[in-house]
């Protein structure tokens, strides 16, 4: 496939985003290059820069897809109807997203690779994480409006840091000594629920 074979503008953008996503999934962020993305999309090496301006522009588009997918994971979280149960369900969904999409997950938080001032990125990332803020308000017995005041942001960052830290430890196999048998299955079904219950009983 080549540019001469008829990519429309939108189709070429989509093909390059898909190629980049594939690279991240297969090789991680360290294995990404604009040249490889172009090769996989079947276009000239200069096409990514032409359409996205830079590697950061292309990677930002993939990060936006990551936040959209994270929002779906959090939206599908099933809880027991209690504030603590809601937090556990969201945190478990957050960790599951990281384990299922490690390349996207690592990219989404890389300030050196993603343009955080991109308005779509800003809006999508805030919207994706909104359920956390709502759940944390419930756990703390307050309203979301009160919690979002600058002087009350600590509970949000504390809870988010917990879920994020668990996700990174799991991705880096830092909990292997506590797992048995099928590591991934044992972590998701046994250890992760125990960790989350210890945090939000």
UniProtKB/TrEMBL annotation:
Superkingdom: Bacteria
This protein's record includes keyword Cytoplasm: no
Domain HTH tetR-type: 10-70
Pfam families hit by this protein: TetR_C_33 (PF13305), TetR_N (PF00440)
DNA-binding region: 33-52
Keywords: DNA-binding, Transcription, Transcription regulation
Any one Gene Ontology molecular-function term assigned to this protein's record: DNA-binding transcription factor activity
PANTHER family per UniProt: HTH-TYPE TRANSCRIPTIONAL REGULATOR RUTR, TETR-FAMILY REGULATORY PROTEIN
Protein name: AcrR family transcriptional regulator
UniProt organism field: Rhizobium aethiopicum
């Amino acid at each position: 496939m080549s540019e001469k074979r008829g990519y429309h503008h939108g189709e070429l953008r989509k093909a390059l985003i898909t190629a980049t996503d594939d690279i991240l999934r297969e090789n991680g962020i360290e294995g990404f290059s604009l040249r490889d993305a172009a090769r996989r999309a079947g276009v000239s090496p200069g096409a990514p820069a032409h359409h996205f301006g830079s590697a950061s522009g292309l990677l930002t588009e993939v990060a936006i897809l990551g936040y959209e997918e994270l929002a779906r994971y959090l939206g599908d979280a099933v809880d027991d109807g209690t504030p603590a149960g809601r937090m556990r369900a969201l945190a478990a969904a957050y960790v599951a997203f990281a384990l299922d999409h490690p390349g996207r997950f690592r990219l989404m938080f890389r300030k050196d690779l993603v343009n955080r001032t991109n308005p779509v990125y800003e809006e999508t990332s805030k919207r994706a994480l909104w359920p956390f803020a709502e759940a944390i308000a419930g756990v703390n017995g307050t309203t979301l409006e009160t919690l979002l005041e600058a002087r009350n942001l600590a509970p949000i960052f504390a809870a988010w840091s917990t879920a994020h830290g668990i996700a990174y430890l799991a991705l880096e196999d830092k909990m292997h000594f506590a797992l048995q048998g099928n590591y991934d299955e044992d972590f998701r079904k046994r250890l992760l629920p125990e960790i989350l219950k210890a945090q939000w009983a």
